[in-house]
Amino acid sequence: MAGTTVNEDNVVYKTVRDAVNARGFDFTLDEVLAVGAGKEKLQAIRSVLALRNVADEKLAQEIFADFNQLLDNAYATLNVTEQPQAAELFKALHSKGIQVALNTGYSRQVAEMLVQKIGWKIGTDIDTLVTASDVPNNRPHPDMVLYAMQQLGIHDAKEVVKVGDSGIDIEEGKNSGCALSIGITTGAQTYEQLSDAHPDYVIDQLMELLDVLDHVNQ
Where is the signal peptide (predicted)? Predict the structure, then answer.
């Protein structure tokens, strides 16, 4: 969601940074994005701490609790919008008979709040929403994609295209057996960082997905 279909000004990763740095660290936002983007947020905190060779689960859990409180406060006043042309893309995909699933490293509580703030309706604008708290294993494991497929009655991952703004999104798509795993540069990571995960395509805006699908179908 964040960075791909939702524009929330990286508030989640800024909050991860702030929660970790409150414990005496000095991580930059770029460091947080490089290792944490796309991950379930406790795992993102563990990955950030690992940059300083810190493997302290008690500390990670405490930071995660702080993070959740800070994020609740941030989202109470944050102006959340869709990424440019997201709703237009959803309509175009639906017109082609393609279902739309959003999946996210957010908890369900946070994800549903974002969807509500934007005004999207599950079952209308998007067909299903799968969150980190819905499955046993998070990215890069395939659980969220497989759960979305189950929700939508899709039995073959070769009928699925995964789009995301982080390398771990690309890994998730590949591990799920998706027909295509596509990076997008509107969010957490750069073209070069996305390319390290060997996506099938990298796009710069959502509507480019339609051209990719047309090209592949031809």
Answer: none
Would the pTM of this model clear 0.70, i.e. be above it? yes
Q: Which tokens sit at 208?
A: 């480019």
Domain 81-217, CATH: 3.40.50.1000
Print pLDDT tens along the chain (218 aa): 989 999 988 888 999 999 999 999 999 999 999 999 888 999 999 999 999 999 999 999 999 999 999 988 888 788 889 999 999 999 999 999 999 999 998 889 889 988 999 999 999 999 999 999 999 999 999 999 999 999 999 999 999 999 999 999 999 999 999 999 999 999 988 999 999 999 999 999 999 999 999 999 88
- CA-to-CA distance for 2 and 17, rounded, in angstroms? 16
Cβ atoms 130, 152 nearer than 8 A: no
Q: Helix, strand, coil: what percent of the chain each, to 5?
A: 50, 10, 35
Q: Which two tokens stand for residue 216?
A: 């592949």
Could you identify the residue written with the tokens 């959740």? 68
Question: SS3 for 81?
Answer: strand
176 near 146, Cβ under 8 Å?
yes
- Measured CA to CA, the distance from residue 92 to residue 206 in angstroms comes to 11
